[in-house]
Amino acid sequence: MSAQTSSTAGAFRTAVVPAAGLGTRFLPTTKAVPKELLPVVDTPGIELVAAEAAAAGADRLLIVTSPGKESVAAYFRDDSELVETLEARGKGALAEKIRRAPGLLAVDSVYQYEPKGLGHAVAQAGPALADDEQAVAVLLPDDLVLGSGGGDSGVLARMAEVRATHGGSVLCAFDIPREQISAYGVFDVSDTGDDDVKQVHGMVEKPDAEDAPSTFAAAGRYLLDRAIFDALDRITPGSGGELQLTDAVALLISEGHPVHVVVHSGGRHDLGNPAGYARAYVDFMLQHPEYGEDLRGWLTDRLKD
Ligand code: UTP
């Protein structure tokens, strides 16, 4: 069941994907190719994230882009000429792959003219929402959040259920071993009646393991009440002179706005740096019906060396 039908109160229609960053960890490639278009096997990360949003009931992807990165939104345009050529050559399966992205959901874009931080990027989406949209999903395209239990039950649909129950805004967390926690933004939480739902009281960026308020680390999925846009207007630049989305969430918490996290038990990949990207690529390759077995054999031999 989609988020739209499972709980109207928690539902969202627009999924915002901030994609206006500089992608410095992938330089020099990102001089010419936006990192959102780097392939995981043969499919750009942004399509995987768009598919996740569509599966959770979103009907519009709103890409926050920057001058020079128009190819990210252009990727979702129909290419009927190419589809026809492939079909005429008997390559129906390839034609189907090309139809997939444009068929997922409607795609629009807004500009962030300068990379002034994730909060500033999300703020650019505010004026593009319809008056009756009370909540918006934000998906960081660097972060692949996989379904739990090996299935495709995505975290966003669960987040929409939690918003329907508790109101306010809902974020996504992973339970990380304490010895690794200092690489993450960490939530200060208390329990609720549901094991996978915690109430958030605050957040600490990259704490020392012994100071971390919990082992629940932030992931790049947010279901934000529309109040976030007003909060984004009121915060001042934080670390690095950037407007931080987490500062706006913290402001809402301080004003009594309910914020919860869903602790997701599925997998995750960080496509935002070469090491995480390589893991994701290998993981998806190993599961691929055509390439998986061959790669497994090659890797096994390679690792013997
Ligand atoms: P990151 O910091 O991971 O991405 O931001 P980046 O800035 O592109 O990459 P590096 O750090 O230089 O390698 C998380 C997400 O937020 C977007 C990025 O595009 C990325 O998808 N973002 C970040 C913006 O849209 N605008 C910003 O000002 C900052």
TrEMBL record:
E.C. designation(s): 2.7.7.9
GO MF term (any one): UTP:glucose-1-phosphate uridylyltransferase activity
Annotated Nucleotidyl transferase domain residues: 15-280
Transmembrane segments: none
InterPro entries per UniProt: GalU_uridylyltTrfase_bac/arc, NTP_transferase_dom, Nucleotide-diphossugar_trans
Catalysis performed (reactions): alpha-D-glucose 1-phosphate + UTP + H(+) = UDP-alpha-D-glucose + diphosphate
Pfam families per the UniProt record, alphabetical: NTP_transferase
Annotated keywords: Nucleotidyltransferase, Transferase
Domain of life: Bacteria
PANTHER family in the cross-refs: UTP--GLUCOSE-1-PHOSPHATE URIDYLYLTRANSFERASE
Similarity comment: Belongs to the UDPGP type 2 family.
Protein name: UTP--glucose-1-phosphate uridylyltransferase
